[in-house]
Amino acid sequence: MSPVHTTIPAGMDEGTEQEYLKLQVKDLSEKLETLRLKRKEDHSKLVDYERSKIQLQALMELKSKMADQLLDLQRQLQEARKEALESREWKEANQEELNSAAEQLEMATIDKEMAEERAEALQSELDSLKLRNEELEADLEILKEEMAAGGAGGISEGNSVQLKQLELQNERLKEALIKLRDINAAAQAEKTAAVREAEVLRTENIELLRAAEIAKKTADDADMRIHDYQEQIEAAMGAEEMVMNLANKNMEMENQIRQLESDRDELEALRDMDDQMMEEQKLVEKALLGEIEGLHIKINELQQRMKQEEDHREELITTIMKFRKKVGEQNEEIQDLKDQVLRYQEELTGHKSEENNMASIVSQMQVNVNRTFAEAVERQVSAVEVEFARKQMGYLKQFLPDNFTKAGGDNDAVILNVLFPRLSAKAKLLTKLMAERFPGVPGGTRREHVTKSHKAEQWAHSARIAYTMSALVAVCGQFESALGNISLEDLARLAQLQPEMTSQERVIDGYLELLRQARLDAETSLENMDKVVTYFQNVLSVNVSADSYDTSAFVQNTFQQIMAGIAWCKMNNQRLSYFLKPGLEECDVAEFVRTIGNELAQCEQLAIKGSKLIPTEKQLKLTPQLRLDMAEARIESAGKQDNVKVQHLEAKIEQLVADNKKKQIFMLVLSSEFDATMDALQKELKECERENAEYKQMAKNFSRKTLLDNIQRIESRAAVSPLNATSPVGISLGREEVALLEQQLSECRDALRRATLEIVSLKAELSLAQNRNGVMRLPDVVCGPETLKAKESDAVLEALSKKVEQLERDELKYKVFIPDPSRPPHLREQDRARFEKERDAHNYQVSTVRTRLHQYWKEACPGQPFPKLFAAPEVKNEPKINDVHYGSEAFNNILNRWGVKA
User: Fold this and answer.
1) Angle at 678 between CA 674 and CA 680, to 5 degrees
2) Fewer Cβ in 10 A, N or C end of the chain?
3) For residue 883, what is the DSSP state?
4) Would you put residue 865 in left (φ > 0), alpha (ψ -120 to 50) or beta?
5) Residue 902 contacts by C-beta under 8 Å, 6 or more apart in sequence?
6) Exposure of 289 by Cβ count < 10 A (0-12 exposed, 13-18 middle, 19+ buried)?
7) How confident is the model at residue 380 (pLDDT cuts 50, 70, 90)?
8) For residue 627, what pLDDT band results from cuts at 50, 70 and 90?
9) Which of 660, 646, 653, 657 is nearest to 876 (CA)?
10) Which residues touch 443 (CB under 8 Å, ≥6 apart)?
């Protein structure tokens, strides 16, 4: 660096010259201090760079390992898919067998259930008959006592009548007993015949199994014999060849014996030589051990020298690192000085006429001093005015009511009206201060700014902040214009959000505080700033989207946001171009970067032209001809708006219709299967009820005497023949059959109940699936003999009307899901799932209101047809426009609509 020579203008006195030199010394000392501070900051950044470089290498190694693991996982996935395909093919090949086995299993299960139910029914009847038997025994005992009392006291006329009745009853019981005996004998004969038939079938089955085993053994013996015969035939066919082979092998073995004897003699001679060599090897081994010890000593010496060389290498590495760090600092200093030289050259080129006259420079300095003094005076005066304005505001608050300053009062609305202009001004101030904090360089960005310093990164960070703040300015401007036309109810609802909005403003204040402390740089995270913009955009879309606002100012702010975003993209694109090595201007990446730059330049020109075409009039004067032209233009462009949204909605509607059709087909199949199952179960239930009625009728026909004789006969038979009592065809068989039938009946009833519940749930799912095709619109009026206006005094109808109005207000939020591109993909998926859940809840509320309206109509107008409440909006078959790209017809139509020439 060459020394800086100071030239003193001629004609200065000594005092002026000293003041001039003091000013220069002070200026140069300040510059020196700033350069020292920058060098310290750059030193920490270089350390961070080396650390990031090491981390990058570790991440690259981790990336290669993850790629290998990914290949292994893909290979395993292919194998799993192959196995799944084979299992699926096997399942398809054996599907018919599986279906037939499932059908047989179902038939067997149904037979089993029917038998269990029948057994349960018989068991219940048997229990009832036992109870009846006990009652009859008690009656019999009573009758015996009465007869005994009548015989002791003499036969009276009443006893003779009772005796005749008992005789008649005895005759009837004898007849019933005879019939029951015949029936029992027939049943016993049938049971014995069935047992004999089962025994015969069992014996036949055992004989068939034995015959099958004998046939299997015979087949195995035949196979063994065939195998032995085949071996004998093969042995007989190859006997002659075997003899010749054995003779040849014998000759070969004799030759091998002679050869082995000669080898044995040679090996004995070699053994003697080996003994001699072993003795010589022991002598050589002793000599080599001595040499190895000497080599170990040399290895230890070399290891010590290696350690010394490693220490020296580490010292050299630290020296090289320090040298590199120093070189980096010097490069940054050189870069800063070059940028400063360019700024001075630009200033000098703008003030060539004043360079030759140093007195003019002094006068300019005096003007700057006067301007600085004037600004200081203005700040002091403004501070005094602000202080007394605050006092005046405090005095005015004293005359206001107490509830004015309470939470949720009018004071929140006043603060809200001041909040958005203040927040917009702070956003603009932050953008301006960032541009002054990281000023540009004349001539634009150069390669040294990207490869040798962090200036390009700082400029890109500043451009990103400008883009985010322009978005915040656009949202605040829309809020500010909408608050002038908003209703009191909406303003009160927004005033409740004033504390949250104030907390969001404090985030912007935090960034201004970081900028004041010189801590806002490229390493500062902007996530909180993005959250502030997203918060205000969500509040705007939920609460103020339906109100009117200044569209010209909003479009102008939107164009400024677009141009700020294009400037940010251009800066990053320029950084990418400088990252490429010189000489790679013809590669694909360089061509892609140039294409992006051209597209960004065209987008910037289009944004500038669009911003110039925004009308400046606050109110449009609509003449009749202009109204007519606007109406015609609106009619012509009605089918050309929101093409992308319409295509998305059409695709979604088609998908929902297809899903609905599939669900309807599935529901029809389920309903048909359920109807068939219900018919079968009802038939079985009727059959069981009929059998139950028959058994009950049969039980009623039994008399007391017949039942008593039957029980005594069964007990006597059980006492005489114990074998029959233990037989499976006895009384226990009837009880088990009754228990089985009862169990089958209960299971059938449970199955019927479950099937009924399943049908109800499936019908509910079908109705919900039909409602999920989109957001259902609620009607403005009820079309029918009585409208909502005619029922203003009805409380139920008023509640329904309020609910309908609330659902109509919420309808716009659930029409289309608009993802936030600033959020990560997984958060966008969560937002989409939350949106669909809220939309389903909205549709459920709409269906609930529709049901309540149905009930109200039935109560208010019984017998009259219900009007059509929910009319799905007609979807126009508009022509689909292809994707918009540069040079396409859709792109030219958009340019013509805006009056821009491509």
Assistant:
1) 120
2) N
3) P
4) beta
5) 891, 892, 895
6) exposed
7) confident
8) low
9) 646
10) 342
Residue pair 13/359 in contact by the 8 Å Cβ criterion: no
Residue type, position 681, single letter: L
Residue 46 — very low, low, confident or very high, per pLDDT cuts 50/70/90? confident
The answer for residues whose C-beta is within 8 angstroms of residue 791's C-beta and 6 or more apart is 797, 860
pLDDT confidence bin for 726, thresholds 50/70/90: very low
Q: Cα-Cα-Cα-Cα dihedral of 431, 436, 440, 441, to 10°? A: 170
Would you call 867 exposed, middle or buried from its count of C-beta atoms within 10 A (0-12, 13-18, 19+)? middle
DSSP at 637: T
- Going by C-alpha positions, the residue among 9, 139, 239, 120 that lies closest to residue 734 is 120
Residues in the chain: 902
Tokens of 577: 């171009």
Q: Letter for the amino acid at 620? A: L
Determine the Cα–Cα distance for residues 884 and 891; give it in Å rounded to an integer.
Answer: 6
| Cα–Cα distance measured from residue 243 to residue 254, given in angstroms and rounded to the nearest whole number | 17
* Rounded (10°) angle between helices 95-153 and 704-720: 110
Q: Which residue has the tokens 């007989």?
A: 236
Tell me if 123 sits within 8 A of 732, measured CB to CB.
no
Residue 663: CB atoms within 10 A of its CB come to 17
| The residue to which tokens 């890109």 are assigned | 460
Q: What CA–CA distance (Å, rounded) separates 450 from 460?
A: 11
- Find, among 679, 687, 673, 674, the residue nearest to 744 by Cα: 687
* Residue 239: C-alpha distances to residues 235, 242, 393, 597 (Å): 6, 5, 130, 93
What are 516's two structure tokens? 């004041």
> Would you say 411 and 405 are in contact if contact means Cβ atoms under 8 Å apart?
yes
Question: Two tokens at 447?
Answer: 């390669």
Whole-number Cα distances in Å, 507 to 34, 565, 586, 885 = 29, 22, 46, 39
Q: Point out which residues pair with 742 in neighbouring strands.
A: 117
241, two tokens? 């060849």
Closest CA to 740 of 117, 210, 317: 117
pLDDT number for residue 409: 64
CB 133 within 8 A of CB 707: yes
In contact, 775 and 814? CB cutoff 8 Å: yes
pLDDT of residue 68: 83
CA distance 97 to 205: 27
Q: CA separation (Å) from 97 to 69, 86, 89, 206?
A: 42, 18, 14, 29
Question: What pLDDT does 774 receive?
Answer: 44
Taking the C-alpha atoms of 688, 692, 694 and 696 in order, what is their torsion angle to the nearest 10 degrees?
Answer: 180
Distance CA 229, CA 221 (A): 12
β-pair partners for 117: 741, 742
Element (H, E) at 453: none
